[in-house]
Design brief:
Layout lengths: L4 H7 L6 E4 L3 E5 L7 E7 L14 H17 L6 E4 L3 H4 L8 E5 L14
Antiparallel strand pairs: 1-2, 2-3, 3-5, 4-5
This protein binds guanosine-5'-monophosphate and zinc ion.
The site of guanosine-5'-monophosphate (5GP) has 15 residues, from α1 and β2.
Length: about 120
């Protein structure tokens, strides 16, 4: 089985543009950005998705969430940003390692996230 692409990015087997790293967390630019700032914030622990979160991940998730606004501001999201966590097939998750998208950095309001059927 091929190893998780984000675990390989954490190990620096695959290069990425990193913006933050500590013992538990890594943050880097998305390879296919949809806005001037498009970061991915991930735990170093290989957790498949938000659906696999357990009580023992409480502190780790708290650390990650506290970092979100700090990194967004540091990278230039002065007027707000969007966070997205895609989960599983229905959620549109493509990489099976929990990640938070941080998207922003432009002047315009981002388009509506979900288009409502009429
Ligand atoms: P998902 O659809 O799972 O929420 O998002 C996965 C994201 O990972 C996508 O936005 C995709 O562009 C990004 N991605 C996939 N492979 C790589 C990679 O090798 N390097 C980086 N920096 N981003 C990646
Ligand atoms: Zn992984």
């Amino acid at each position: 089985m091929r190893e998780c692409i984000f675990c390989r990015i954490i190990r620096k087997d695959i290069p990425s543009t990193g913006v933050y790293e500590d013992a538990d967390i890594f943050a880097f630019y998305d390879i296919n950005p949809i806005a001037p700032v498009h970061l991915l914030l991930i735990p170093k622990l290989h957790i498949i998705s938000l659906a696999e979160i357990e009580e023992k991940h409480h502190t780790l998730l708290g650390k990650i969430m506290v970092l979100v606004p700090r990194l967004a501001k540091k990278e230039g999201c002065a007027d707000g940003f969007r966070t997205i966590i895609n989960t599983g097939y229905v959620g549109g998750q493509e990489v099976d390692h929990l990640h938070i998208h941080i998207i922003g950095g432009g002047k315009e309001r981002l388009p509506a996230m979900i288009h409502r059927p009429n």
